[in-house]
Automatic annotation (TrEMBL):
This is Sugar ABC transporter permease. PANTHER family: POLYGALACTURONAN_RHAMNOGALACTURONAN TRANSPORT SYSTEM PERMEASE PROTEIN YTEP, PROTEIN LPLB. GO terms for biological process: transmembrane transport. It comes from Paenibacillus mangrovi. It is a multi-pass membrane protein. Keywords: Membrane, Transmembrane, Transmembrane helix, Transport. It is found in: Cell membrane; Membrane. Residues 66-281 form the ABC transmembrane type-1 domain.
């Protein structure tokens, strides 16, 4: 440490960041076991044990919240997660460098738009009053479709928006993994008579398999996190039964209702479920002989 003290000094800002913004706030978890009062503070509030967790599990809408959250996360896992992988494989096959960079730039751009803008574009396209898609349907002699107020469309729209906004950005990690593949492997495969599909199946996919598994394991940890802003902006009274999730419920009960202890208990419950899923997914991955997160 004495010889390389300069390198250790460079670690200080990162260490301070994690201590101040990650570890110190963990102390706030204790209010999940209290009837927290901002006036009494954490040390002066009454301890109630697991009362808030019991209240959550006995809440009439708990299973509705859990079902909606799990279904949206499941759809994202099935439909959204593979898209960056497919895009990365397609981009990796492009040999014209200029065209490849242009495509990458185009698919990266939606990531930098806020969900407010994305949802606004959705309303402009799919709204029943002046929405472009419905105007085209009516111009063709059809009947307008209430995309934004029909329960059957809600989850599909949520997943589609996530794919459009984040799929391009998600290719960065996979493209970085593909950049580390030894070109000699492809040359040897060509000599052996392997076509593009054989190269993809036997070289490219195995090269990024560990990356895919690690990202999948980490994604399991956020299975109960669907993104508050996105869901909240798309919610309305007609789709509440299929779109109300833990984040929107926490917003109503915590920020609007002032039930800080109760909503902290909900957050702790979500984190505990995420931890169990990460550990389970990591165990299964290592059980099948692959490299896990730890």
């Amino acid at each position: 440490m004495i010889n390389d003290w300069e390198l250790y000094v460079m670690l200080v800002p990162g260490i301070l960041f994690f201590i101040i913004f990650k570890y110190i706030p963990m102390w706030g978890i204790v209010i999940a076991f209290q009837n927290y009062s901002p006036y009494k503070g954490i040390t002066g509030s009454e301890w109630v044990g697991f009362q808030h967790f019991v209240t959550l599990f006995h809440y009439n809408g708990f299973w509705l919240l859990l079902r909606n959250t799990m279904l949206i996360s499941f759809y994202n896992l099935i439909f959204f997660f593979p898209v960056p992988i497919v895009l990365s494989l397609l981009l990796n096959e492009i040999r014209a460098t200029a065209f490849k960079k242009f495509i990458q730039t185009v698919i990266y751009l939606p990531h930098f738009l806020s969900w407010v803008v994305v949802v606004g574009i959705t309303y402009m396209l799919l709204g029943t009053q002046g929405g472009l898609i419905n105007e085209l349907i009516k111009a063709g002699g059809g009947t307008e479709i209430a995309f934004l107020t029909t329960q059957e469309w809600f989850r599909g729209l949520i997943v589609s928006q996530s794919i459009w906004k984040e799929a391009g950005w998600g290719t960065i990690i996979f493209l970085a993994a593909l950049a580390g593949v030894d070109p000699q492997l492809y040359e040897a495969a060509i000599v052996d008579g392997a076509g593009r599909w054989r190269q993809l199946w036997h070289i490219t996919l195995p090269a990024i398999r560990s990356t895919i598994l690690i990202l999948l394991i980490l994604r399991m940890g956020s299975v109960l996190d669907t993104g508050f802003e996105h869901i909240y902006l798309m919610l309305n009274s007609t789709v509440n039964d299929v779109g109300d999730v833990f984040e929107t419920y926490v917003y109503r009960e915590g920020l609007i209702g002032g039930k800080f202890s109760y909503t902290t208990a909900i957050g702790l419950f979500k984190s505990f479920v995420g931890l169990i899923l990460i550990m389970g997914a990591n165990w299964l991955t290592k059980k099948f002989g692959e490299e896990g997160v730890y």
